[in-house]
Amino acid sequence: MTGLDRERAETYLRLLAERALRDPDRAATVNRVTHALVTAGVVDSLVGGTIVDELALALETRQADPPAPRSAVRYRRWWPAGFPAEPPPAPLPRQFVPAGLTVPVTGGTMHLLAYARSGSGAVFAVVAHSTLAEPLDGLTATDDTGASYELIFSGSASAQEWSGELALYPDPPAELRWLEIAGPGTPARRVDLTAEPAAAAVAAPVRASAGEYLLNVSAAHQLSVLCQFLPEERRALVPESQEPSAKDSLAEITTALIAVGALSPDSTLPGQLAALRRAVDADEHDPAATPGQELPEHWASVLDSYQHPGPAVEQPDGCAAIAITLPELDGIVVSVLGLHSADGTSALHVYATGAPPWHLRGGIAPLPLVWLRDSDDRWHVTSASGGSDGDGELAMRLEVIPPLARPGWVEVVVNGRSAVVRATVPLRWG
Amino acid sequence: MPCGQGTHPLRWDTGIVQLPSHPDAEAELVLAALGGEKPGCVRLAEIWARHTDDLSVLGIWPRSAEDRVTVDWDSIPEPQAAGQSGWTTLSGGAVPHSSGRQPPGRQAMQAEIERTAQRTTDVLSLLALGPGFQMRLSGHVAAAQATLSTTMPRPALETALIGRIALVAEKWIGIDPDQVKNVTLHTGEGWGSSRMSGRGEERELAFSLPASWLASVWACGLALAGRQLVVAVTRAGWPDAQVLALRAPGAEPALLDVHGTADADGSPVWEAAR
């Protein structure tokens, strides 16, 4: 978006707010459309937050009954404002080396996906499964010169999975050939640090529209979250009276995207998203509810995996290192570290620099949307499910839906606001 | 307004807020700087001064004399010292306020919470002054914005103009405010332009008016004089002035002498002079 387009989008939102002041029933529309335009990157989160906040205050002070005594912080912003528009400079992207090794730890196993050395030190990206608490305590490493290091875990934990980084202390030299990792009571395993990253075929970025990005994000949300519930379960979770009409909501967002020049009036995606929503909401046994509009291949593939799941095949736990860094998208550099599968689930682990700090995001997801196509031509959507976020660096775990069945390769499709990047990478599962 | 244990008058006169109960406000500010309590009137005059070019005033404040914004003094929170508001309040009281060192992101958020709290207090205090002061502060902001020379788009100012001219047009010719479209900030010579197109529900009324219209016409309560829409002031004055006014959309404006009287709030009401 050019500066002029951003002004046009801001004017559009302010006019919506102006109408909502005359008709307060329209206030929810302002919130929805603002959130959509901020997610699409068409409106700055600070501007969007200011418009929503001013409207809320304007409406509250026009109520028939005088407002009750309040706390000064009662007006809680759901988007912060007043921060410097420019985030601090991002740290340099790391250069990753694939590790791809599974080692035993107390009560379970640990997958070493990748090794990276940067100005802030050396780390392994890891995923561990263990029945015991704190299975990554007491790990040590020895390098090819005999020097020893302590390994300190940082990251997230849920159920019996630990996902994050193992940092080496003290900081090792740059030119290491290998490291041997050992834990209390477990034998040492050697990690080759001279391996080349996976021989990925990275295609040049293809331009995309901010509006289509937003609609893809919405589709991914439908496919990754809502599909996990039956229609009647979703209705029980959110009573219809509280849920804005999906049809109305999509229509007002589409109108806004077209009006601000973020979506072509000829785009087929709004109709396809409406068809996806009908399909997600539909009773799969009701043939009349089958959408008439053909869905994009990747949406249809994920939807089909829900509607027609194949026979369950038990997959062994394991990991596949990738360690590739993709071209920059919307100022964000994403490195794909690797995949791991366990207990019938799969996750893609990524590291990114250049995303705005969390307090500047306005609640918007920091990473571009990632889809995967596997060697059986099945598509998978991803959904953030944990990670660490700080100092301009993100280490995220993205759940892969539906789970992977140890494919021979995957195409990683990273969908940003301004472009789409694709990379095809061979996988060697360990 | 409440000040100390009593109630003090506040006066606006030719663009200046006066504090009759604090004839030596400068001295009181010095005492406050030395640790004394700053009187409420003095604090409010400072708040006023901070917001005389704040565009959000046009976003929140009344669009017309009929657009009533009501804030009681009792509903305004006490001003808080730095660090007094914080995560405790944001998280619903479950987390004790920490006086320890916070990470930079949290410090930034803490600072933002305090700025937001201060801003909320400021806005509510200014609105509590009532319709007369509300209109005059809008006039200050519009005048300050009108003097800025820029060719860049100005969404907040443009929307402020649309929101106000739409309501004036509704009273003028009975058009639905949503049918007032294509309102732009006029930057060239002359007063601007107006144009009506379509019929019935398809009617659209377009305007191009300078930002100064908000300050010199609308904020003075001059937008409608009799049945005519005022587009510019040719001779300012009280209670008599001369304006350029439109009888109908698309018509050429004509000079009109107007005479003003004050309503119960002290706001001016203008009629065509006989």
Low-confidence region ranges of chain B: 82-100
What kind of oligomer do you see?
Answer: heterodimer
Rg calculated over all Cα atoms of chain B: 22 Å
Q: Which overall shape of chain B is indicated by the principal axes computed on the Cα atoms?
A: globular
Description of the structure:
- The complex is a heterodimer of chains A (430) and B (274).
- By secondary structure, chain A is α+β, with helices and mostly antiparallel strands.
- Chain A has 8 helices and 18 strands.
- Chain A is globular and about 75 Å long.
- Chain B has 274 residues and is of the alpha+beta class.
- In chain B, the strands form 4 sheets. Chain B has a 5-stranded antiparallel sheet. In chain B, strands 5-7-6 form a 3-stranded mixed sheet, with helices on one face.
- At the A-B interface, helix 1 and helix 3 of A face helix 3, helix 5 and helix 7 of B.
Structural topology:
The complex is a heterodimer of chains A (430) and B (274).
Chain A: H1 3-22, H2 27-39, H3 45-60, E1 95-105, E2 108-118, E3 121-130, E4 140-143, E5 148-158, E6 161-169, E7 178-183, E8 186-192, E9 201-202, E10 206-207, H4 210-224, H5 231-237, H6 246-259, H7 269-281, H8 297-307, E11 318-325, E12 333-342, E13 345-353, E14 369-374, E15 379-390, E16 393-401, E17 409-415, E18 419-426
Antiparallel strand pairs in A: 1-2, 2-3, 3-6, 4-5, 4-7, 5-6, 7-8, 9-18, 10-18, 11-12, 12-13, 13-16, 14-15, 14-17, 15-16, 17-18
Helix pairs in contact in A: 1-2, 1-3, 2-3, 2-6, 4-7, 6-7
Chain B: E1 2-3, E2 6-7, E3 11-13, E4 16-18, H1 25-33, H2 40-50, H3 56-60, H4 87-90, H5 104-128, H6 131-146, H7 155-173, E5 180-185, E6 193-197, E7 204-209, H8 212-216, E8 224-225, E9 228-235, E10 240-246, E11 254-262, E12 268-272
Parallel strand pairs in B: 5-7
Antiparallel strand pairs in B: 1-2, 3-4, 6-7, 8-9, 9-10, 10-11, 11-12
